[in-house]
Structure formats: structure tokens, C-alpha cells
Amino acid sequence: MTATDTTAADTTAADSTPPTKPAATTQVYRVYIQATPQQVWDAITQPEWNARYGYPGHSEYDLRPGGAYRGIADADMLAMGLPELLVDGEVLEADPPRRLVQTWRFNWSPEIIAEGYTRVTWETAEEIGGITRLTVTHELEGAPLTAEQVGGSAPMVEGGGGWAMILSGLKTLLETGKDLGIHDA
Amino acid sequence: MVTYHRPMTDDDRVFKALADPTRRFLLDQLFERDGRTLTELESVLDMTRFGVMKHLRVLEEANLIVTRRSGREKLHFLNPVPIRLIHDRWIDKFTERRIAALTDLKRELEDRS
């Protein structure tokens, strides 16, 4: 954790200057889920599913090229002073249930908004034994604050967890029907 | 002997992969800077190319690294999801509340000073 801690400390200390350490510009995550590609696709794109894992709130997708992506805060997050439209973006490609490409921008501070839109690709592949392999690739060039956030280096109480937490929750929900309980925290 | 055929994300494979110091070192290297080639990873280890490849294969089978082609190069990315799954299933249950309480206490004390 040393490298990330240093980056976080630098950011805080330097205040307005960006972190000096170059963050990795692409992050890749993979999880194997006992579910069909269609179930995984629905769990990603349908609000009644995506509200139940990852961070509180839910996501809305208009699944056509040029369609909107909206990550919406829940009441608790609004009470914390976060904006209702936490994340916004655009659907670039939607090929259900195989491939979804979208842009992604966090909206909770002027600094993170200034990093602009990053790009997220979701890919499912059917494996033997009723298993779906889900790969998430997040291209983060020029977006060190976004990279830190989705990389999950901040403690959970400060919004840490990132993609690893989201995908772990997605797998648990689809395989056991259970939410991970992060929403109660 | 009972044999199981379980998916590649199996906790056993993760623990086995993490049990080796060289493999943990490789993961630390990728944590520091992600998306490296075999040649880059080889350069930080006093080991043959074949030895490094064997370790990388064990890590890939445990889903702790994911490889991606970029032009002619094969890049290795650290995948923390299996560790997160172990955290969520096992460790969380025992420690999360205590850690949260300690983090709150630390913040409160630091805010006062």
C-alpha cells in the first residue's frame, strides 16, 4: 500500500497541484461468475440489480450509442453533500450481453470533473460450466484522481473499494442473492 | 481422495499463489506500476525468464493477474478482485467493524489535536 499512500499524502499536502507520481493509465479487473452472460449484463445495466451491489445509489443506462449513462446518488449520499448525478457518461457501444463501452466521469469536485471523461469497457465471455468471465477495463489517461478512486486505495469509510469491491459484490449478489451489506455501513 | 473441479477464482489457488514470496513480489511490482511486460518484470528479479513465466502463470491461473495484448506486447495487470472476494467472504466478517471503529477513533483524535 506504500506507493498509493504516498500518492494520497502528496495530493493532500500539495493541495492544488496534481500528484507527482504517474498513476497507471489503464486498470483491468476480472471476475468469474456462476451465471449466464445475460444475467451478468442485466446486473450491470438494470437499476433494480445494480442498486444492490457496489456503492449506494444506482446506475441508469440508455443502451444505444450516444445514450446517457447516469450514476445516481441515494438519499444518504445526498445528505453527505454529494451531487445527485455522481457519475455521468455516454454509451459508446452496446452489444448485449457481450460488450458495453461507455465513458465515465465523477462529478463531486471541480478537480475530478476537470479530469474529464475516462473510458470503461465491460466484456463478458461464456466459460464452461455455466460460468461467465467478466472483464472490466478502465482507461484512465490523464485522470489520476479518478484512477485512485476506482483503484480502491481509499479506506472504505472514505469511499474506497473501487472496482474490486463493486465486482466482488456483483459476483456475490448473482451467486447467492445476497447484498454484501455495504449499504448498511 | 476427493477431487473438485472448481472455477479458476477458487480461493485455494489464490492462497497457493500468494504463499510464494517471489509471486508476492511480482504483485507488489504491478501494484507500483501496472501493465508491465514480461521483460520489464524479469529485469527486477534475479531469475531466468522461464522461472518468471512460471510464476506469472500461477498468478494468472489464480486470476491475480490479467494479461492484455497491446500491439506486439503482452501486458500484465494486477487484478485485486480475488483478494477482495476473500476479504468480503472471510476477513470482513471478523475485522471490518473493529477497523472502522479504530479509523473513526484515529480521525477524531487527529481532528482534536
Provide an overview of this structure.
- The complex is a heterodimer of chains A (185) and B (113).
- With 185 residues, chain A is of the alpha+beta class.
- Chain A is 32% helix and 30% strand.
- In chain A, a hairpin with a 3-residue loop joins strand 4 and strand 5.
- Chain B has five helices and two strands.
- In chain B, helix 1 (11-18) packs antiparallel against helix 4 (49-61).
- The longest helix of chain B has 32 residues, at 81-112.
> How does the major sheet of chain A shape up?
7 strands, antiparallel
* Strand-residue proportion of chain A: 25-35%
- For the termini of chain B, the CA-CA separation is 60 Å
The secondary-structure element order of chain B is: HHHHEEH
Q: Cα distance, first to last residue of chain A?
A: 23 Å
Number of domains of chain A: 1
Shape estimate of chain B: elongated
Name of the top-level CATH class of chain A: Alpha Beta
Could you name the ranges of chain B where pLDDT drops below 50 across 5 or more consecutive residues?
A: none
What would the principal axes of the Cα set say about the shape of chain A? globular
Q: What percentage of residues of chain A falls in helices of 4 or more residues?
A: 25-40%
Average residue-wise pLDDT of chain A: 85
The CATH homologous superfamily of chain A is called START domain
The appropriate CATH architecture of the largest domain in chain B is Orthogonal Bundle
